[in-house]
Amino acid sequence: MPTLPAIDWPRPWYDAVRPAFERLGLDPGGVEAGAAMDAFNAAAAATGLRNHLGMPISFVPQSALPEGRAYEQFIGATGCVPTRENLHDFFNALVWMTFPRIKCALNALQSAQIALSGVGKSRGPARDGATIFDENSALLVVRASSGGEALVAALRTHRWSEALFARRAQFGTDAQVWLFGHALMEKLVAPRKAITAHVLVVMADAAYFALAPAAQRAWIDERVARGLADGALSTASFTPLQVLGVPGWWEGQDQAFYADTSVFRPKRVESTI
């Protein structure tokens, strides 16, 4: 069995899934793929992890996915998550362990869209949004206040220096970034300044920020899953955020760092002609 590439676990972008990994009891210096599959299945059984139809979730080899069957539809119908021996699917399983309600809601949305319009080349806005969320998203939890709203406005309008440098003190106390997308986590094994997340903003009250991290994860899981079930999701739901620009997540974050317009690009002006 292959050993997965090394992961720099202390990095802050792995804060969301690190506790789930630690509970597996695997060697952080080198994860053997077969041992990871066994550990994930034991954890899924122990926690009663289930899909939206109530079927137990299990992690199975990629070969279990029938030819021509859509991945999301297969999970929705069977509870079996096809899992390859690579970092991409390893992080996917960790996200299932960390945010099971969100993963379940996303799979329900994707399965419903496939049932409605088939697999096809064109997925439509809802399925596109769900795929982006699953693969490359981060959750920005912001304190519901005038300062929080101003931070979000600065990010949405790509005023990077204001949002990430001038307002850097808000991060940790009034704003938190939690990675969700498993492809995003995989990319950050080899961090680059240009790696960008699709961010979904989640507003929270003061009570959330007083919770312990485990309780914050549970709150996020319930709140976001409920939102996915109740409302529409599309590519317009997200705003970009350069992951290494999150205050405290990288070295040398001075004003010049955020003035790099090859990474922190100004918002494109829409033509009115």
TrEMBL record:
InterPro entries on file: DUF3025
Name of this chain's protein: DUF3025 domain-containing protein
Organism of origin: Massilia glaciei
